[in-house]
From TrEMBL:
Location of this chain's protein in the cell: Cell membrane
Bilayer-crossing regions: 12-32, 52-75, 110-131, 138-159, 190-210, 240-260, 281-304
Pfam families reported for this sequence: BPD_transp_2
Statement: the UniProt record of this protein carries the keyword rRNA processing: no
GO cellular component terms given for this protein: plasma membrane
InterPro entries membership: ABC_transp_permease
CDD domains, per the entry: TM_PBP1_transp_TpRbsC_like
Keyword Flavoprotein tagged: no
Identification of the protein by name: ABC transporter permease
Top-level taxon of origin: Bacteria
Membrane topology: Multi-pass membrane protein
Main localization category: membrane
Organism encoding this protein: Paenibacillus pectinilyticus
GO molecular function, one term: transmembrane transporter activity
Upper taxonomic lineage: Bacteria, Bacillati, Bacillota, Bacilli, Bacillales
Amino acid sequence: MLKGRFQLSAWLQPLLAVAIGLLGGAIAISLIGGSVTETYAEMWKGAFGSFYFFTNTLTRATPLILVGLGVSIAFRAGFFNMGSEGQMILGALSSALVALYLPGPPLFKLLAAILSGIIAGGIWSAFAGWLDAKFRMNLIITTLLLNYIAALFAGYMVAYPFKDKTGSAALAQTMMIDKSIWLPKLFQGMSIHGGFIIAIGLAILLFLFIKYTVAGYEMRMLGYNPLFAAYGGVNRRKVMLTSMFASGGFAGLAGAVEVLGMQYRYTDGMISNPGYAWSGIMATLLSGAHPLGTAIASILLAALQTGGMGVERNTNIPLEISSVIQSLLILFVTAKFSYTLWKRRKGGKSDAASS
């Protein structure tokens, strides 16, 4: 009975958040003199109105799913990895450089580029975990600050030593990756590529891992009750470093997939400007760090973004209306987390008083 109520709550809370976001968006549309029904109809058409737009939405959702899955691993283990952007940047840069300069046949270079993205993102994330384990440095602060280091380092690398100087463009970017190393497109003439299949497959595998394996159980135990986990013999340091590496590895994979499936080179700002990492984190929070829910929430957020572009094309409503809706989703999630923390603290005080 309790389990059924918990599962019902896990599905109702994201739906409630979406309803609040759409209601707030409707108010904003009304205030600027637009038609709510027309705007939302255009938003739906821009995201799902045709097979072309639908595949664009799934393409946009691909890096969000991978980032969200990585963040969900850390959250499930009780750690806040806010450094997905930096991890994704280093994963993208590493995969681009390996694809460009590693000798070998195309398939080998493709697999090596993907693996290098995972390793780069994983090491950058695990470094923050090591700082916590070794020096007790706050994980939220270190992961946030490491984003800036990664972004500035990658920007320097493509502005100077690895800059493409063959074209007339003044952009800070690497050379174009050979077409034989690109991730294959799933449909001819569409943007969706093999990275989406990888993302969905990993979402299913991660769900099974967390639910049915001993390592997944230890990770969940540490996240739900650290004291009980320590009493049960769970090594916090080991689980933290492992989960942080895996979390960053997923973000690095997201960067690699974006380079190999969409951009075909690393360009300074290609990860930061679209806000992939923060949208992925939001998807994780909306789903309660559930792997399958994260995939669904990522597609929803991607639909808001691609649908917002359709609204701007076909109405007088600006693109920022989708940002208004996402901001309200963030506000709902923040309020939910604040309420949960308040209940835990109140429960802890009550237990102390009764003892």
